[in-house]
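Project outcomes to date are best conveyed with an example. Our students and postdoctoral researchers have been running inverse folding experiments weekly, and each run begins with a structure described purely in tokens. The record below, which covers 381 residues, was selected by the lab manager from last quarter's runs and is presented without edits.
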């Protein structure tokens, strides 16, 4: 049956998608992938994504099984719609949820209630790695060929560092093994091409390269363009093609830096004006929420991180999406669980947050423009 991987539009999602595609092809599967345009469809497995999956023409024909990577734990409506359309769904994710998981064929997430898997800090690509390792082991037990998952540890290491998850003992091992392979020259052509585009030397590869050179170039595609470009760079086995795509990603990343710089300057002006309006002797607000019609949706998370670092306050930056709704990305500080805070806001003010999700330190939400002042006061409360 044709398997369709439904990915996410950041570096973790891109490496997760690539890993699933390459490893499943090793096993002989007919596999394609779909990454939604963040500006049209937003985040996660939604009914609209299911419809897009069914309306897209694939060489292998319509998909029969959807497998999510780095998303899906909050996709209840998407799973229900997929079932209504005759599709099966497997969810692999690492994000937090306070709700029961969707009724998929299987839900693999170390952070879902009742999961005994010891390593809770896995990135989405780490979850995909363990799912594929288990599948490959089962195949070999049945006398079928497996996949050499160690061949893809460069992708696992890149996605893990780029997603800024906690480097616990398990993640540290995955990253160390990925770096070891890269330093020895054993990596995907796309990873090698990204090192070249960034002017970095694989033989001296470090986690810094993932976080500040390769990761941002992949993320730039999802922020300003289409993450398909990033995934194609990682999937291809043609070094020349990988080099062309890596150069295109490098150009998009330069554009991203320009947009980010302009927006960060604008946000600093707004923040200074907000602080100037604070009554004399009053401390900085306990949380910050900034919106301006000129803000770009693709870089709100980066700007939120900068403002959070400046004032040491949980910070959300909002931008108007193509559908007219505000898309917010937040960054938090140690001791303040941002995803749980959004859950509390949604309970105290039903309907204000149309969608939300994330982690302790980073989260996202969607809301109507008229509701953003209420969201700001609720988050501060």
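After processing, the design step wrote out the following sequence:
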């Amino acid at each position: 049956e044709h398997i369709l991987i439904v990915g996410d539009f950041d570096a973790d999602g891109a490496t997760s998608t690539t890993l699933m595609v390459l490893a499943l092809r090793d096993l002989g599967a007919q596999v394609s992938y779909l990454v939604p345009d963040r500006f049209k469809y937003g985040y996660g497995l939604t009914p609209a994504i299911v419809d897009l999956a069914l309306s897209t023409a694939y060489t292998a024909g319509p998909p029969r099984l959807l497998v999510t990577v780095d998303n899906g734990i909050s996709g209840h409506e998407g799973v229900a719609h997929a079932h209504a359309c005759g599709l099966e769904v497997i969810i692999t994710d690492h994000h937090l949820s306070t709700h029961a998981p969707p009724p998929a064929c299987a839900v693999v997430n170390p952070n879902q209630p009742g999961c005994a898997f010891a390593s809770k800090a896995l990135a989405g690509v780490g979850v995909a790695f363990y799912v594929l390792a288990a599948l490959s082991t089962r195949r070999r037990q049945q006398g079928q060929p497996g996949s050499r998952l160690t061949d893809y540890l460069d992708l696992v290491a890149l996605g893990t560092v780029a997603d800024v998850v906690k480097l616990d003992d398990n993640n540290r091992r995955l990253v160390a093994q990925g770096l070891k392979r890269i330093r020895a020259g054993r990596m995907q052509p796309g990873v090698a091409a990204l090192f070249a585009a960034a002017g970095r030397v694989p033989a001296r590869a470090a986690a810094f390269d993932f976080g500040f050179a390769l990761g941002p170039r992949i993320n730039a595609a999802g922020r300003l363009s289409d993450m398909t470009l990033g995934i194609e760079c990682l999937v291809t086995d043609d070094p020349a093609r990988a080099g062309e795509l890596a150069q295109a990603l490098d150009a998009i990343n330069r554009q991203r830096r320009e947009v980010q710089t302009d927006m960060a300057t604008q946000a600093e002006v707004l923040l200074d004006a907000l602080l100037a309006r604070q009554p004399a002797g009053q401390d900085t607000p306990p949380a910050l929420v900034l919106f301006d019609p000129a803000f770009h949706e693709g870089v709100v998370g980066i700007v939120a991180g900068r403002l959070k670092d400046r004032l040491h306050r949980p910070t959300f930056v909002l931008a108007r999406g193509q559908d007219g709704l505000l898309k917010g990305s937040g960054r938090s500080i140690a001791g303040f669980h941002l995803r749980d805070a959004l859950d509390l806001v949604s309970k105290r003010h039903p309907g204000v947050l149309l969608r939300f999700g994330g982690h302790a330190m980073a989260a996202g939400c969607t809301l109507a423009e008229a509701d953003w002042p209420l969201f700001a006061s609720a988050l501060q409360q």
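The chain has a mean pLDDT of 94. Strands lie at 2-6, 30-34, 65-69, 88-92, 106-108, 288-291, 315-320, 326-331, 353-358, 362-367. The training component of this project remains on track.
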